[in-house]
Amino acid sequence: MSISVHVREYDGPTVESYLGPGVRQLVELSYGVSDRFPLLSGVDTDDETVFNERQCKRLRDELRDLAEEADDEAVRSAAYSLIELTRLVMGSEGNVPGHRTLYFNGG
Known about the structure:
The chain is an alpha+beta fold. It has one domain (about 5-105). It is built from 3 helices and 4 strands, in the order ββαβααβ. It has helices at about 25-30, 55-70, 75-90, and strands spanning about 5-10, 15-20, 50, 100-105. It has a 4-stranded antiparallel beta sheet with strand order 2-1-4-3. α2 (about 55-70) runs antiparallel to α3 (about 75-90). The N and C termini lie close together (about 5 Å).
């Protein structure tokens, strides 16, 4: 089964989603090196996992590191797509969003 990833507003609406391949493989790669990827390795591939704005800052760094090390193009592509989603959660200088979360939906 695949894992979908969504940016959600605090009151529920979805802002953006990534439904492409590679997320499950990306998460499973992090399991073997959980000391280096503590947030990503905490994603439950069979259930829901939610990250807030502060966690997304660290998660973004983990995704960047894993993307640089990955041999699989689908994993790299998923990592870079998820980095973009973390940016939507964190906002940018002068453009801070409302309260958002990054939601992994395993299954």
